[in-house]
Amino acid sequence: TLVRPGLQNQKDSHRTAVMAYSRDRSQSGIYSDIMTEIYSYLTEEREKELFDKTHQIIMDRKLFLDPKFSRETYLKLVGLNKNQVAKLLQKYAGTNLIRYINGMRLDYSLKLMEMHPEYPIKAISADSGFNNTRTFYRLFSARFGIAPSEYKRKS
After folding, report:
1. How far apart are CA 113 and CA 121, in angstroms?
2. Whole-structure pTM over 0.85, yes or no?
3. What φ, ψ does residue 130 adopt, rounded to 5°?
4. Per-residue pLDDT at 1
């Protein structure tokens, strides 16, 4: 479960109190099951909000365009540890951090090619946050099934 630093003890004590209440209410454990389900739902809601808010900040500030954007940068932004971030991204983006950031860069490169057809591929690559044009070519071709130069010619 993903939580912001400093909230773990508060959540643990709340959950302990809920679970104790549940045990007192029923021998069968039905309340315990219900409260556990509600607690996990609320936590998932917060995880989703954290992911969405972080994604919005990255997009609004175009942080993905910085070739030096790293896991450490993302960790500082969300205030979670690397394992929590890995789970968060896998759950809500369906991928890891590198692919997540490169996906945003590739989407941006399409916009650049459409808005500035006169830009050379090397400039598109650099302006999209890639520090290596060969990597840009490889990732672009893998994702869109066409080389960037071909895409640019056809646009």
Report:
1. 8
2. no
3. -90, 135
4. 43
